[in-house]
Every structure is written in C-alpha cells, then in structure tokens.
Amino acid sequence: MLYILLMVILLLPAMAGLGAFFKNIFGDFSAGIALQILAGIFFTTITWTILACFIPLNIYVETGTLVIGLSAFFYFKMYLDFWNFITRNFILSSGISAVIIFFGSYYPFILDHFGYYVPTIKWLAEVGLVKGISNLDLLLGQSSFWHIFQAGFSNFSDPYLRLNALAMIVYLIYILEKKSWIHLLFLPFLFLFIQSPSPDLPAIVFSLIILNEVFNSNKNAGFLFAISVFVLAIKPTMMWLPIFVFFYNFFIVRNNYRFLLGGTAILFLFFFKNIWTFGFPVFPVQFLDLGFSWKLNDELLENSSKVALLKTYDMQYSYGEIQRFSRLDYVRNWLFLNGIKSKIHLLFVLSLTAFFVFAMIRKSKLIWILFISILIKSALVLLFSAQYRFFFDLFFVMFFVVFYQVIPRKFSLIFFTGLSIFIAGFLSFPNLPQTYIPSFKLGNFMTGFNKNQFIKPSSFELNKYKTHQIGNLKFNVVDGYFFSFDTPIPTITPQFIQEDLDAGIFPQLKGKTLKEGFVWRKISDEEKMKIAEILKEYSEAIPAKED
To answer: Which three-class secondary structure state does DSSP give residue 192?
Structure first.
C-alpha cells in the first residue's frame, strides 16, 4: 500500500501539470482538477504512442515526463487547486483513497494480467512498439493505449503496475468535485479490476466521466470527442462512446465539423498502431488488407476467430457443435449457458429492453441518441464475440442514465461502504467464491490477503524458462506455466508455438534486432520435428484442441 501511495503522490501532480500545459496550448476545456489530470494522461499517452514507434518507453522517457509534469504543476500553481480541494473534501477523499489503495494492493488474479498485460508492458518498456509483434504472439498485437501509458511509468514510478489505482483516484476526485454521488455506487465493482493494468477499468471510468459531462451539458465538443476516441483506443469495445459524443455534438449542440479534428487524428493513430503491430487497422479483424509483409498469417487469424466463437459460449460447446446450431440455438444456448454467465446474459437482455422502454417514456433526444449508440455497440459485440466482458460497461451506463438524478449522497455512501466490505471479504477469503460461485473461474486464482500488502502490492514471481532457437529467432518459453508474465523477451507461449506448428509456420526476425520486428515464414520438415520435440516438454501447458 505504501508503494501505491507514493506512486499516487508522484503521478497525480505530474499529470495535473501536464494537463495544465495541454490546456494552455489547446485552450480551456473544463473546470476541475480531475479533467485536468485526465487531459494530462491523454496528452502523455498520445505523445508516448508516437515515441514508442522509435524508442523504448524506458527510464529516460519516464524521468523526462515527470520533470516536465512536476515543473508545470508548480509553474501553473496547480498546488493551490489541490489544496483547496483537499481542505473541502479531506475526510471523504482521504478515506475512500485509502480504500482504493487497499484494494489495489491485492494479488492480481485476472488471467490476461499474465498472458497479455504484463508481456505487452515489458515489450513497450524495453523495446517500444514492434512491427509485426503479433507474429510472435497474437495477444501482443493489441497494445492498448493504457498499456503504453502504464509501460512508461513501469520503470520506477509504478514497477508493480498499479496505475488503475491512479485512475480510480482521478474518478474519485471527479465525483467529489461534481458532487455526482451515483458514481460512488460503481467504485466497489471496479475494485475487482484494480490489481492489474486492465484497460477495462480506465475505459469504464473515463467513459462515465464523459457521459456525466454530456448530461451536464458540457459543450466543449472537440475535447469530449477527442477523449471519447482515446477511450476507444484504450478498449475498442467502447465504440459506443465516440458514436454517442458525435451524435450529441452534431444533433444537440450542433457544432460544425471542426470538433472532429482531434478525435480523428487519434483514431488514425490508433489504426496506425494496429497496422504497425498486427498488420491490419482493427485488431484482431482481417479487415482492409494492405499487403504488409509483417501481417499475421491467415490460418492464425482463422484460429483466433474460432476461439472468439468458443468463448462466446464459455467453451461449453465444441466448434463443430456451434457450427451445427440453428439460428434459435445460437440465441438460446447463449442465454442459457451453465453457470453465472447465463445470468449475466439474461440480465443484459432485460436491461437493454428496460432501457428502451425508459427511452420511450422519457422522450429525450439525448437518451435516444445514447440508446442507439449502445445498440450499435451491442449488435457488433453480439456479431463478433458475445462475451459478457465486452458489454459489462453498458450496465454502468444504463444504470447511470436511469438513476443519476435520484440517488442521494447518504444512500451512495452507505451502499459504497457495505459493498466495499463485501468485496474485501470476497478477495480476502477466496474459498468463498470458489465454494459458492464455482462457475466464477477467476475465483480459483485468488489468493487472499497478505500482511506484506501494507508495504508493497502483492505480485507473483516465477522466472522459470528455457531458451530455444528456430531459424534466426532465439526465444524463451516459460517452464511449468501457461503464461510468460516474467519471462525475458522475446518469449512465446507453448500454446502459440503449437498453433504455429499446426499452421506450418514460425516467426522470424524481420532484420537483425527486435526493434525491426517480426514476420512469419514456412518451416521445413526438419524444423517441424524440432518444434515438436520442444513442445513435448510443455504438453501440460497446451490446452486440448477443440474439434
């Protein structure tokens, strides 16, 4: 907890200073510390995304950014705004911040932390954005803007990767500044995402801030649209937000098209980043093939699509069985899966239906615009991969719109306190979710409370791996585990090696260095035998193949 507290004390003023710097260049966008910090995060991330194409986000980038940010913090006298905020909100801000830091100190348990988040951040910090890195491991091709931001501060400010705690405290500052108490109801649910650099948390938090600004009639169109596209770049399944902000500015505020400039530039940067790492503009979709030599192999893309479909049905059906579904089966089997996910699916359908009725009753143009935006997002998610985590954010959105004018401060504080205690018990005593919610698979990866959390956040260490070479690529493979979260780069998971072997290909260095990137090439029979021998050592780490 002490480490997270020091990180927050260092980064909050630095981001506020960079936000003030950003505001003085591009003009005022809104009052308040929270939005200024958000602007600093936005400005830093966009700058680092461009830099990462050329250099690693190493300690020199981090130090330079902190020096500029902290200098701007004092130059623009932001400390006066912080002092005024603290004196007005000392009890709530310090109390809830302590709770946030407490939850941030638990062991990470989201599987993507080990298989995607940490490896991506390692590559960004040590090498930068790498051309065609998805050829090494498909997941590395995602490179969320949030992981770019996290990577830059992973050298010494936040080595335990707990920047989600910073995002939560920015959210708390916003709640207290705007006195929008309904948002306190959402904080305990987000505590489940705070131990990892999960892009879901900042995407949800920042989208709710922008949604609140729109419902409070913020007419700074350019800033709102730019941040909404930034949220999309953090988590592409948040596409409803830029659609909503666009419709809001076009049909209600009636701005001219100039508000699109900033957001459009960020959208092109997002597409460029995907092309650079993956070969196509939208990860992981084989859309707009521009023929780049480093694009992912077609067979591996097809495998990715199959896995997405299997995950839609929580791996409870084989690919062959799903292919034989009738149209009715597609819907019925998704709604009535075994376990907790079917309840979430049913709740989502019911919530969307109730929100439609609410929109009809209210007859508000703004609410109708929002409903259409989330309907577009829902249709796209259901079409490509209807996993509940891809529409989880919409529960917060719909609840906010229905109740934001009626939830009082006292009720919000009581609910926040009660649910926070429940979540603390949920995380501290992992036998409870494992016993009472056996279909909640992540419960098996929870490890409970550790007294060392009071000093530094809990984290896992494995550091077991073996080194192999195929062609010009010398690579490491984790030993005795599924994921390569602390294996030195370049690393490939056993599962992805198996997929390469099945496709008859293997990644190779594009040039002489890791920074020059990766391509794939067909392998010889001799190389196939060598890869098969390597995989014999990792058979337990390769999931059974679906028919």
So the answer is: helix
| Total residue count of the chain as it appears in this document | 547
Confidence of residue 527 (pLDDT cuts 50, 70, 90): very high
Q: CB neighbours of 219 closer than 8 A, spacing ≥ 6?
A: 253, 255
The residue among 389, 442, 454, 421 whose CA lies nearest residue 188 is 421
Query: What is d(CA 13, CA 11) in angstroms, rounded to the nearest whole number?
Result: 6
Kindly give, in sequence order, each residue whose CB lies less than 8 Å from that of residue 498, ignoring residues fewer than 6 positions away.
535, 542
Contacts of 276 (CB under 8 A, 6+ apart): 53, 129, 131
Tokens of 332: 């019925």
Predicted confidence band of residue 544 (pLDDT cuts 50, 70, 90): low
Phi first, then psi, for residue 105 (nearest 5°) are -90, -5
Question: CA 375, CA 20: separation in Å to the nearest integer?
Answer: 36
547 — pLDDT class (breaks 50, 70, 90):
very low
What is the identity of the amino acid at 305?
S
DSSP 8-state symbol, 504:
T
Count of beta carbons in the 10 Å neighbourhood of residue 321 = 15
Q: What is the 3-state secondary structure (H, E, C) of 517-530?
A: CEEEEECCHHHHHH
527: Cβ contacts below 8 Å, ≥ 6 apart: 470, 471, 506
- Helix axis angle, 365-384 to 240-247, nearest 10°: 150
Task: Yes or no: say if 380 and 407 are a contact pair by the CB < 8 Å rule.
Answer: no
Residue 468, classed as helix, strand or coil, is strand
Please determine, for residue 443, whether its predicted confidence score (pLDDT) is greater than 50: yes
Beta strands in 42-200 (DSSP E): none
In terms of C-beta density within 10 A (0-12 exposed, 13-18 middle, 19 or more buried), how is residue 264 classed? middle
Q: Report the alpha-carbon distance of residue 143 to residue 49 in Å, rounded.
A: 10
Q: Find out whether 115 and 494 touch, Cβ atoms under 8 Å.
A: no
Name 278's Cβ contacts closer than 8 Å, sequence gap at least 6. Answer: 132, 134, 141, 142, 284, 295, 296
Considering only CA atoms, give the Rg of the chain.
Answer: 23
- Residue 69 identity (one-letter amino acid): G
Provide the pairing of β-strand 518-522 with 473-478: unpaired
What's 47-82 look like in SS3? Answer: HHHHHCCCCCCCHHHHHHHHHHHHHHHHHCCHHHHH
- Backbone torsions φ then ψ of 255, nearest 5 degrees: -80, 160
- pLDDT confidence of residue 251: 87
